[in-house]
Amino acid sequence: MDLNQQAEHLANTYADAILRLSYTYLKNTQDAQDVCQTVFVKLLTEPREFESPRHERAYILRMAANACKDLLKSPWRKRTCALEACMEVPAPEAEDGSLLAAVNQLPAHYRAVIYLFYYEGYDAREIGQILGVPTATVHTRLARGRAKLKELLGGYGYEQTV
Hints:
By secondary structure, the protein is mainly α. 72% of the residues lie in helices and 0% in strands. It is built from nine helices and no strands. It has helices at residues 3-26, 29-45, 53-72, 75-79, 83-86, 99-105, 108-119, 124-131, 135-153. Helix 1 packs across helix 7. The longest helix is centred in the first third of the chain and has 24 residues, at 3-26. Mean pLDDT is 83; it is low at 88-92.
C-alpha cells in the first residue's frame, strides 16, 4: 500500500474516533483536528505493524489520548487565550440539563473513560490499556463519572425536583 492509500485508509477508518476522543479531552474542535493530524503524521512517518485491526485501533486511540494530554499540559496553551473567549458572539452551547452539557462539565479523566466505554464500546481493561491506567482506576472513574452525571442531571430518571 502506498503512502496515499495508507493515509486515506487511516482517515476513513479512524478520523471520527480520534476527533471524538480528542474533543472529550480538549472541548475544542480545532484542537481536536490538530491532534488528529498529529496522530496521522506520526503513523505515516513511523510505520508500525499491528497484530490485528483491534490492536491497531487501540494503539491509535492511545496515541490520540497521549497527544491530547501533551497539548493540555503544554506551556503555550496555558499562556494563550482561547479564541472563543475573545469573540463577541459566543457559539451556541448545549442546553442546560442536556446529557452533552453534563458530560462536558465532567473532568477530562471522567469524560475520556465514559466516551470510550459508551461510544466506542471498549471494556474497562481495554480502556486502561489505551489510557495507560490500571483497570481498577477505569472502574473507579466510570463509577464516579456516572455518579457525577446523575448528580448533574438531577438524580435517578433525571427528573428535576422543584
